[in-house]
Design a protein that fits this description.
The complex is a heterodimer of chains A (349) and B (257). Chain A is built from 14 helices and two strands. Chain A is mainly alpha-helical. The two termini of chain A are 26 Å apart. In chain A, 48% of the residues are buried. The mean pLDDT of chain B is 92. The chains are: A mainly alpha (349), B alpha/beta (257).
């Protein structure tokens, strides 16, 4: 039995190592892909050169190449990877605390709130903070929605997952009607709204990378800290409480953190579905439901997946299609397949 | 003295569920809590494990307010086998039993050899070794209940609280699990507090019975003294005969249809 446990642990480390290596590879290769091709070795040299400040690494390149790599492609690539990882881990957490395998970062209406906020900012042409007003409004919309959903579903005895999910659905339905109305009155900006809603990593900057990295990093630390408590919470409230978990407090902390991570991701990238739902499912097949393993593995897998999807739409397809549409078109059917397979194997997702 | 309950009262919204409940639970005793459906038994359990807090009155655990203990301190003192044991994610049986050791393992530490030994021993005792590596989501209700019971045993606490912990088990496993609990009381000085639906099982295993109806303590005492037809009539409104049975060496109850 000890041997088995050891093997499992080593397997997790191995999985993490492989995924991390794969992610580094995908980042480098995808940075080289696009209208201007850059060989992988050159990408590595340019990055090293910029990081270390050693000019001789940059010698011998066309002067446009460092700009393409560092200022155009890497910010987009890294934001795609970080958002993918963020959506995936918050998916793990939502499924864990809502005890519902169909939950994802958007279940509580966070995405609808963000979409409403963004649509409002676009429609009213709010230029308060320049290019940051749309993400800021999206974030505010998402957090306001979260607060309202928690208020709606809480009663004296704390909050139950059923109440949360129902409140999320109700609020999301109201907000989508609101978004439809905004589109209806929007005239010329309607295309901007629609385009934002479908998600994109185009023209991301290093400050987007920094912002998402900060929130996803903090979120990840919180999730890893409470990973064991999340395991216990899947045994039910009473049992978790009798095993030393302050269920009410931990649920609230995880709920708010996961929603904020989701909100930041949405506000940077627009609405990208299925990553938060699909990645935790796929990874659970690999690692089992133990959140101590599932959280880090999902982070890396989500990052790789969304980055790959973004690279496909950016550099492989003849013309760019919105990333949100692509993930839904690929992720949706794949989820149906997974669902059907596990269903047949009589395994609960 | 593990538990001292004094004037315990609990309101669920406007409804008084536990009404002025005072009793002590001692070490080395097997207590049976018996009462009709909806009489407040599970709420009493919730109060004993500090899952809910009393509206009035107080509970002391070893001389200190129960609410003054931290969750993690309590999890090393009191283990609970709950009534509902639905588990949503496909953990293996072994992983679930190991969760009973979590209160004894630091947050980021791996289980020690000692923890694995305890888990193995508990699975052996509870007769669940044969499905140690199966997913808990694939087990039948009764199998899962045995896993949950084993998880509570792995917690290795001075107090074990059973909330209808054998409701889904056949008589063979019921007896074997209650024997494990009774052995803990006899050999290790543990306190077992068991909510029970089956009065004959309660009579066979419990040193001490506590009858509860509408949230009130009706009568409590050693089974031999208080288990009789008057008690059963006043608590359950049934006609019953109580007699000593040589074969089982304990009191038995038969009911009129």
């Amino acid at each position: 039995m000890r041997g088995l446990k050891k093997k499992l642990k080593e397997a997790t480390l191995l999985q993490l190592g492989l995924l991390a290596a794969l992610m580094a590879g995908v980042i480098i290769v995808s940075t080289g892909m696009g209208y201007i091709k850059v060989p992988a070795a050159a990408v590595v040299k340019v990055i090293l050169g910029r990081l270390t400040g050693q000019a001789h690494f940059l010698a011998g390149f066309d002067s446009i190449i460092p700009t393409v790599v560092m200022d155009v492609r890497l910010p987009r690539i890294l934001s795609a990877a970080i958002v993918g990882g963020g959506l995936a881990v918050s998916g793990v957490v939502f499924q864990g605390i809502l005890l519902n395998p169909l939950a994802d970062p958007y279940t509580l209406g966070v995405s609808a709130g963000a979409a409403f906020g963004a649509s409002l900012a676009i429609l009213l042409n709010i230029g308060l903070l320049g290019m940051y007003s749309v993400p800021l409004f999206a974030f505010l919309g998402a957090t306001a929605t979260l607060v309202f959903v928690i208020y709606l579903s809480s009663s004296g005895g704390g909050i139950t997952s059923n109440n949360l999910i129902l409140s999320g659905i109700i609020v999301a339905a109201i907000l989508s009607a609101g978004i439809s109305f905004l589109k209806y009155v929007a005239d010329e900006q309607v295309s901007v709204i629609i385009f934002w809603l479908m998600g994109s990593f185009g023209s991301k900057t290093w400050s987007d990378v920094g912002l998402t990295l900060l929130f996803v990093g903090l979120g990840l630390a919180v999730f890893i800290f409470f990973a064991r408590d999340m395991n216990l919470m899947s045994l039910g409230d009473r049992t978790a409480s009798s095993l030393g978990v302050n269920t009410r407090r931990v649920t609230m902390i995880l709920l708010v953190t996961a929603s904020l991570v989701g909100a930041v991701c949405v506000s940077v990238s627009g609405i990208i579905g299925f990553v938060g739902l699909l990645v935790p499912h796929m990874m659970r097949l690999l690692t089992g439901p133990d959140n101590q393993r599932l959280v880090p593995v999902s982070l890396l897998a989500g990052a790789i997946l969304l980055l790959a999807a973004d690279t496909i739409t950016r550099a492989v397809l003849p013309s760019e299609i919105p990333i949100g549409v692509l993930t839904a078109l690929i992720g949706g059917p794949f989820f149906c397949y997974l669902f059907r397979r596990q269903h047949k194997a009589r395994k609960i997702l | 003295m593990p538990f001292e309950l004094d004037g315990l009262t609990f309101f669920y919204e406007d409804k008084k569920v536990i009404d002025d409940f005072s009793i002590n639970f001692e070490a080395s005793k097997f207590y049976g809590i018996v009462g009709p459906n909806g009489s407040g038994k599970t709420t009493l359990v919730d109060l004993l494990v500090n899952h809910r807090q009393p509206t009035e009155g107080r509970i002391n655990y070893r001389g200190k307010r129960l609410s003054a203990y931290s969750k993690s301190e309590l999890s090393r003192q009191i283990a609970l086998v709950p009534q509902n044991f639905y588990i949503n994610f496909p953990f293996t049986v072994k992983e679930i039993v190991m969760m009973g050791r979590y209160p004894h393992i630091a947050r980021f530490a791996a289980p020690s050899d000692e923890d694995w030994k305890i888990v193995d021993a508990v699975m052996e005792k509870s007769k669940i070794v044969e499905f140690a590596d199966r997913y808990v989501t694939e087990l039948s209700g009764g199998e899962r209940q045995r896993v949950v019971f084993a998880r509570a045993l792995a917690q290795n606490t001075p107090v074990l609280i059973l909330d209808e912990a054998t409701s889904n088990l056949d008589i063979n496993y019921t007896i074997s699990l209650l024997n494990i609990a009774a052995a803990g009381v006899r050999d290790a000085g543990k306190t077992v507090i068991a909510v029970m639906q089956d009065i004959n099982l309660a009579a066979a295993y419990c040193d001490y019975l506590v009858f509860i109806a509408s949230g009130r303590l009706v009568i409590h005492g050693p089974a031999g003294k208080i288990l009789n037809s008057e008690t059963l009539r006043s608590v359950f409104e049934v006609e019953a005969k109580v007699y000593f049975e040589d074969y089982s060496n304990c009191l038995q109850v038969v009911f009129r249809r």
